[in-house]
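Researcher: Here's a chain I'd like modeled. Treat it as a single chain, no partners, no ligands.
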Amino acid sequence: MDKKYGVYICTGCGIGDTLDMEDLVEIPEEEGLNCTTHPFLCSKEGVALIQKDVDDGKVNAMVIGACSRRVNFDVFRFDNCIVERVNLREGVVWPHSRETYPALTEEQKEDEEHFDRIQMKAEDYIRMGMIRLEKVKLPIPYLPESFSKKILVLGGGVTGMAAALDAAKTGYDVTIVEKTEALGGYAAKLRSQMPVSAPFETLQAPVADKLIQEIQGYPNIDVRTGCEVARIAGQPGEFTVTFKKPGERIPFDVPFPLPEEMLVDETGKELDPEAAHAKFLEYNEGRKDILNLDPDGELYGAVILAAGWRPADLSKMGIDHLGFDLPDVVSNHEFEQIAAKGKIARPSDGKPAKNVVFIQSPGKDEDDADFDYCGSVTSQVALKQARYVTEDYTDGKAFVIYQHMRTPGLQEYFYKSMQQEDGVFMTKGSVTEVKTQGNGLEVTAVNTLLGENLALKADMVVIAGGMVPVTKDDPVVNLAYRQGPGFRDNDIFGQYADSNYICFPYETQRTGIYAAGAIRRAMTIEESIEDAAGAALKAIQCVESANRGMSVHPRSGDMTFPEFFFQRCTQCKRCTVECPFGALDDDAKGTPKANPTRCRRCGTCMGACPERIISFADYTIDSIGSQIKAVKVPSEDDFDEPPFRFLALICENDAFPALDMVGLNRIDYSPDVRFIPVRCLGSVNTIWIKDALAQGMDGVILIGCKHGDDYQCHFVKGSELAEVRVKKIGDALSSLALEEERVAFVEVAIDEYDKLPKIINDFVEEVDALGPNPFKGF
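Model: Modeled as a single isolated chain. Structure tokens:
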């Protein structure tokens, strides 16, 4: 692309009132670039002005100095043009203008030094935008050679059937894989399910049979029962799936010779087939199925994981005091099976069970004292099963003892109806013991709502076992990925199938594979059906985006993908190991092998590479490094007391929006900090920090998403990796006689904008106390 540059600066929204526009315009003009100002650049007239220059062939790479790139992104979009948005409004004018500068006296309003610093910030941003245009290129999307829009659904229960129907109704071919011999899953074995319509007081017949009949009417749904997935290889749009019968073992031997592309080294020299094969087997011992080498596999575009849950094992809960080993003490799962066969009878002798106690917690008195994998579903199941008792026996009595009773949404009506049900008794309390008494059971409980201890006689006791996702200790999907056959690298959140995304439900750590139903969290049938629709839409979005070479999420529409300069690759494998999404495999030597449609475009691989050989079309080591070098670092040649200069590398997902909100709320902070948004802090290469300090910047701060159990980085572990890298850079700083405090890492949630000014100012003050960077002026 032969670049033709142009700079456009808006003077509206206070920009022209605060900044010296003549000085600002001089910056591009000194470089021989045309600079145009407009009082309302996002208006029809302003956009038309730019579009005319594009249509006339004058401009195809432009800097637009106006509002944040997070607004008007659709307005300032021009076909086949590189657009660099420079944030003069939220990033410069609004937080630093005379009107918003806090507690200004009349004398301070005349403090031109402060406003000179604001002008310098704006001028730096224009320089940074201009240099970035030189260093990036227009993305050319990756388009798969063989592409499938078929959707694979793993699991033939209610969730899987609902997802398949939703996808099929929109015209997509779907395959349902169910390991048992019939569709329906757990829902087909229920006696009843919770009410789904007003007045939410009457139990409903299970919906499974209706869904099975509906599926039979769709010729584009291929149902395979008695079938499992042996392996999934490839990437979205090109998943190669191998099926097998339950219990069958399919070896995935590496064929001889290896594919032609593996029989050349990085210089193009041909390798001996036997030696290459032997080396591959040696290097890949234990993971020989990593390559997509199954000629009998079927091609799919996306996968919906709806494999469901399994009942919790009471014997592993440490609840001996609840008598789980007694014949008439059962789990809620076992009780449902008994109820589905007819009137409720005791397992021990088959006699009617008219008095049943439902225990919802292990007996502890803490506020979080529920069983593992329990929640609102087990509360609702207890109410439903209590209704069974009163339905089967006019003199039946059901006792529900709980620490928490959760009935979200309209199910609260069912809870209220059960409170009025004759024969149903509910109380908060802690069960201390279940023991045999006579020909029945005795249940004792303390700390009840009544303030009295209870001793209840019972024919049966039902313990609220939770819904354990089948992904716990079982990969289910059997991925042929370098990162392993499952989703997780850890045991957070009980190994549910998703990655605890707050903003991106249904998505897993493996792009193109979407989770729905109880494999994501404990859900009712109604919730699972709704969840299935979301997963189906995500799968459709995935195949359509991948077919256009676009990222699905969270950088939706991004057409870049990682590119490698293999001549300098040392096969260190850091990129393949640190990629949060398994987008990179590697060959026998450890050379990375990209799967572009798996990639989420976070750039973590770019930040990990010590040789800096990984880049994206519009996001490279050089492009960010050049922006850093474009910042003017004041020295004593220009000032008696030169202001300090700081660099902030800021995550575009949480911290950058928070910074915009600081501007929107007109909150001031140090104008000596230059912010560069990055895709993710995981993409930050330490060379940027070293370059900033080497050119005399006084400090560098990385501001990114929170990470941990209760909040998660959009790219799963990018923020965490950045924090580790910052800690390791301390030794390098010491060797340069620089204090470790000059580099900092902080976490900010998107709603914590009010904390950001103090974070910035505190860092500035801490570095100011250290004194100027000794490299300043060199």
